[in-house]
Write a structure and sequence with these properties.
Blueprint (H helix, E strand, L loop, with lengths): L3 H13 L8 H10 L3 E4 L6 H11 L3 E5 L3 H13 L4 E3 L6 H13 L4 E4 L1 H4 L2 H8 L3 E6 L14 H4 L4 H4 L5 E5 L4 H11 L5 E4 L7 E7 L3 H10 L5 E5 L3 H13 L4 E4 L5 H12 L5 E4 L12 E6 L6 H8 L9 E7 L1 H12 L6 H16 L4 H8 L24 H16 L5 H9 L4 H4 L17 H13 L3 E4 L4 E4 L1 H5 L18 H10 L7 H18 L3 H4 L2 H10 L4 H4 L7 H21 L19 H13 L4 H8 L3 H14 L11 H12 L6 H7 L6 H12 L3
Parallel strand pairs: 1-6, 1-7, 2-4, 2-5, 3-4, 5-6, 8-13, 9-11, 9-12, 10-11, 12-13
Antiparallel strand pairs: 14-15
Length: about 725
Amino acid sequence: MPTADSNLLGTLRQYWGYDALRPLQGDAIACALDSRDSVVVLPTGGGKSLCFQVPALMRDGIAIVVSPLISLMKDQVDALKANGVRAEAIHSGLTLAEKQAVDRALRSGEVKLLYVSPERLVQPAFIEYVRGLGVSFVAIDEAHCISHWGHDFRPEYRQLRTLRDAFPEVALHAFTATATPQVRDDIVSELTLRDPKVIVGSFDRPNLTYRVLQRGSLIDQVDEIISNHSGESGLVYCISRKNVEDLCAKLQVKGYRALGYHAGMGDEVRKRNQEAFSRDEANIIVATVAFGMGIDKSNVRYVIHAGLPKSIEHYQQETGRAGRDGLESECWLVYSNADFMLWKNILEKEESDAAPIALAKLEDMLQFARRMQCRHKSILAYFGETYAKPRCGACDVCLDVSEADEHSISIARTIIDCARQIGDYAGPKFTMQVLAGSREDRVLSSRAAQLSSYGALQDQDEAAIRAWIDQLVDQEYLVKRGQYNVLADGPRLTEDPKLSGVRFSAVVKRAPRERERERKLAAKPASPVDLKLFEKLRALRRSIADERSVPAFVILSDVSLNDMAAKKPVTLAALRQVHGIGERKAEDFGAQFIQVIQEFCEARDIEGDTQVALPTKPARRSKQDMRDAAAKLFAARLSVEEVCEQLQRAPSTVGEYLAEYIEAANISDPEPWAGIEILERVRFAVNEGGDGRLKSIFDALNGDASYIQIRVCLACIRNGG
């Protein structure tokens, strides 16, 4: 008899085309299979969804998934259906006919995952409705929203505290990508989780390269970054709606396919722009943080923050939308001190208990931007994790692309000497003005205009000078004293009088990345991916996606296209060895991809891959053929698990086949599929005046029998057993 592990990996291979789980996914899945409450914290792109989607297929009943946004539900359901998984969503965007179709599907017992909003799930009438369907477990996505300490608190999530009473016999599983220890504790408390297993993955995203720039000419900086990602998908986050509209318009003038997104737009406009981005009709979205959890696009190659985020949690989650497919991606933060003051003014006007918490988080974000410390190390430290490597090789600090050239020490010495000369009036702004050679009255009328330091950095932008001053303070070569933040020698100056440890991140008009990119490419082995073939496969993917009215990534991820462009499979058997090609996708459009690859190989006299590592799948059987095949296997007394393995069908479907077989064959003895004791307990539950529903009988038996065993016993009873 197959083991649980073999069933799990078989399910994973059949529906998702994966051969193995990522770290900690197995632990999270085990909790769902064992009905143990859990809190699962995995970074964006870490595979959280599989942790509840896979066990949903392996358990009887329907898994309820709480999701905050309709767009996110739709993308998840579309992706599952493309994989051959029956999933549905109930939300306010459905028509009456669509709601009725979903209801019929749910009552048929074929649906394994149902996506709903938090507000809907806590309604008493809806709770009674789903109880009658048989709930296997409840998965709460974006669970950090339930906590006041979280970065995206949502009052509607607080209502989920009633779930324990509403579903006392069902395990609750909370999933999030961003949660500090305090938020994790709050989730456990708010949901009243029972002895939950807390699973926390690493917050590190090694495929992301982080870079921070002081803002100069924003449009020039953003243009330079985007130009190095020609044709690729990217997100640009702005602080305000006005910033979004201004920057988006400037990018459009430069010829980019950019669209805006913010809360001030109409619902239809936002929806249209998001769908255009998902379907690669536009490759840039310029947005406020309103464009957050609604995006599930896997091939975002860069994220630009054109302003300081409110917290490191926001930054970690928003940058996490890059590279969800595991491929290398870039995250740029372009900020100024004015961003900090803007957020500070907004937060100080808020009258809530959370305001002081938010201000502290904002300060942490500013320090992250200013501090010349490995970005990966800084993010992990914030979430209580230690980064073991001395250098990440994937941030501006560790790659030495920040401006730390031979002039850095000279610039630092000039700034320190100027502060000493000014003395008691050396506030950061005044010092900057003196160094820049300002012609303002307050400078010209003071003795500072006569100092040797006056105008010493007049060839530099004032924003750059101010940034260097701030960084010298951050690195403790200077300190701020008194009410007016007067600059004075810092403790590190005594330890390092030659300033050998000074590191500057500068304001630049062009992003300093070409030399670094060439160095990284030179250090890498030649890629086996044929880029010309990749582009042809990408065009086919978009065509198929357009026909089906779904985002391109729902069809196949960039990882799958890369693997295909490297392996060049020209048979169906070889195609099934491509990462992310499950049985349903191989059936639905495998032939189209094979044709493109065959034509590509023939035109270039290249030999494609014809390996037969898996047997070619036979033509798809009709439902009646499947029932007949199942009946033959049950006649040979095979178990449900063995029939699932042979027919490659979900247990719930095979359970229906078994009940039909028992009734048709007039069988009254439930063995080997259920014991006589279970039969008698089911008979007692029915005779006690219950409503005859599977869920009621399941509850009466205290969960000692599965839904399949109950179906078997009911069929035997109807046959006189």
